[in-house]
Amino acid sequence: MKIVIKDGYFCLAFCLGANRDWEEDYDDMVLELLDDDESCFIIYRLDEARGRHFEHVFITWQPEDAPVADRATYTTSKSNLIELYEEGTFTYHLAGANECDVDFNALKYVMMSEGEIEPLSKYEELKRDAIAEEEVARNRQMKKIPDIDMQVDDDAIKEINKFVKGFINFVQFGIDNKKEMIRCSDSRNVTVSELPDKMPEAIPRFNLYRYSHVKEGKYTEFVPVFIYYVPEEGTAKSKSLYPCAIDGFIKKLQGYGADIKLRLEFSDLHDMTEGVLYELIYPPDRSELEKSFREVTPTKRAGKRGGWVKVLPV
Questions:
Q1: CA–CA distances in Å: residue 160 to residues 184, 186, 213, 251, 312
Q2: pLDDT tens track for 7-23
Q3: What's the predicted TM-score (pTM) here?
């Protein structure tokens, strides 16, 4: 069974019946369903029963030629699909970008490691070692996904330069999903109280903001802050794509001269206030706050869900 993600939904793309026993069918069926430029999930049923149901193999296919946004969406959606099935349905899990990562020999290696089948032959050991080497290389490549070097639109760079020179104190950025490029969606001078009104509903945004305030009633401070707004109502695709680009984008901003002092993440617009922002910039104990979530008490306006604010080192 091949499952793909379309418009935020899991969709059944193909469903094939058994021709022979599962070992003989495996490569012919599984590898036939894989595309070189599109990710997917494959669920393959084995002949062996365990408890009340048959054993199944869950395969996550993310080829290197698939769009970054596509691969990221499948990474973040995998657990959601598994949760739709009864616990214990999937006995084995495979993931890969090359056929050798998910073919029968790869599955056999996983089974052997769990004591399910006989030890490998000499040839199969060599095949296993080759798979392991390719997996190491693939893991290195996959680790790059959360830190994508996404291009920045020329107009966005112009607005960043205005920010750096002090002409404006706010620049907002969005990601063009089709071109995988960061573009400027808004730029102007705003106060903290106006920030929530600049955030679109259910769509994440990167924001560069120069927070002007009076510290301890003595003098004015100007603190450049990077704000990542990630609404809980956002789509799985947008939620997966923006985190992939955030680290690389901050490095680019610093390269353009934006001296970012703090990186904040908000999930609820009602938490984006003067008091919360000041407290996050000047916490009592910054060392504990940097690596933990600060739970914000739900308010009547925020509803029962409540929001969270996250402070991260730049």
A1: 9, 11, 21, 13, 22
A2: 888 999 888 888 888 88
A3: 0.55
